[in-house]
Amino acid sequence: VSTSEFVDHVDSAVGARVVGSDKYPRRHPPETPRPSYSIPSASRNAGAEPGRVLLLVRPDFGTAILERKKTPDRLIVGEAVNDDNSVVSLNPETTEKLQLFRGDAVLLKGKKRRRDTICIALADGTCDEPKIRMNKVVRSNLRVRLGDVVSVHQIQHVKYGKHVHIPPVDDTIEGITGNLFDVYLKPYFLEAYRPVRKGDVFLVRGGMCSVEFKVIETDPPDCCVVAPDTEIFCDGDPIKREDEERLDEVGHPQLFESIGVKPPKGILLYGPPGSGKTLIARAVANETGAFFFCIDDPEIMSKLAGESESNLRKAFEEAEKNVPSIIFIDEIDSIAPKREKTHGEVERHIVSQLLTLMDGLESWSHVIVIGATNRPNSIDPALRRFGRFDREIDIGVPDEVGCLEVLRIHTKNMKLAEDVDLERTAKDTHGYVGADLAALCTEAALQCVREKMDVVDLEDESTDAEILSSMAVTNEHFKTALGTSNPSALRETVVEVPNVTWDDSGGLENVKRELQETVRYPVEHPEKFEKFGMSPSRGVLFYGPPGCGKPLLAEAIANECQANFQCQGSRVAHHVVWRK
Q: Where does the CDC48 domain start and stop, copy by copy (predicted)?
């Protein structure tokens, strides 16, 4: 779960360059001044329909439409003739009513769940006036079907993107080798000036296979136009479809009813502390519009006999009264530990009560239980079977791309200096989880404040405006914060970069050259291996008589790569023997 997926970046207004290219030319001159427009936030427009629903005027329900003289922006979804993921077709009269020109970008909004996307509007004389034609990819991003109603909003200006991150979906690249960018993304975006929106999924056909990609990050945030000078990144771990679909199941239980299958009752989120498990659960509740009921240890546990079980029953009863609802149990390992390892009767009774309550949930009750823990193996095994916690999702430590996205979220309201390089900071935050990155940004801001404390009069109730305007977090502040912060995942592990170089080891030139090719090149140039479809070596075995310099070579190559180094060997065996 990328995560990708915590905060809605709709704060920034879009402006600057206008969508338009040789492929989708405009009728009006590009220099024509037009008012700037920002993408409307779904939360501000939820429930505010531009018109009222009136009676149907025809008995033919296949073609009947609502009277929409006051709502020309609400159109019926039809099948596309042109299978382009970035284009929607409208009747010429509809484009005139909406004041759209050929090649204009439009914001399409679905009927629920605040789904929207951006496409290029083209006039099509074969399209009926109340309809809008779009292909399957656009309908999937909007969560609509043929015959549903979508709203169309004009967007005057969309910025050209500086860079976008578009990784593939994992189950669509099985068996595919080679560079995905050269084969799929480069031809797809070449001179097309396609608008993309964060969260959109699109299909690209190349050769004999088709690959799905998902937009998880754009700069400018939220949406942009992929121009020839836009940097496109598809590196990093592929998007796991199953994690996204497991959370989408919460809002669509009728999909299971139609095929006679019981929907899942529970989802277990596990991962290190601070990785965002609680935040993900709240985001799912917000996206699905479900009632959110949070349970933690202090609210349940009681010294009085039977009161702990009663509190748990009340929580489930309250959730069933406010369906659809999500019951979130934080730190579930402290509420439902393994019964054979607990010494108190209260814990055993709570585990038994939780098992009974989860079994008592009806399959179609529209109530789902989400548990979160950083110790999944400490939970009672009876909870981790089908019918209770059906799915288990690992919320791991973010990679470099994930760290960069989290840093941008936490710094979007910070006043940053021009020399701040968040991409470099993300490379130096290996092992940091979301909470660690938030603490890093806070520490960098505190460093900025400490520098100004000497010029601030603490006895004065107000602060000089010049001092406030001169304050900005610099790259040096982030470097200082990195030196004082420790990642949660590495707190119990001591690692260091050795200070041994090649000059400390004489001879063995052939061995050094082979180590450079085997170890250093994959670390410093991973993109070249990916380009040629090569997998780097996973390990190197040194063998030779004692005293020939095997550990010295290992430390030297670690220093060349600036990689963390751990020499365990007999040290591990020593600790194991003494512990036994």
A: 175-241
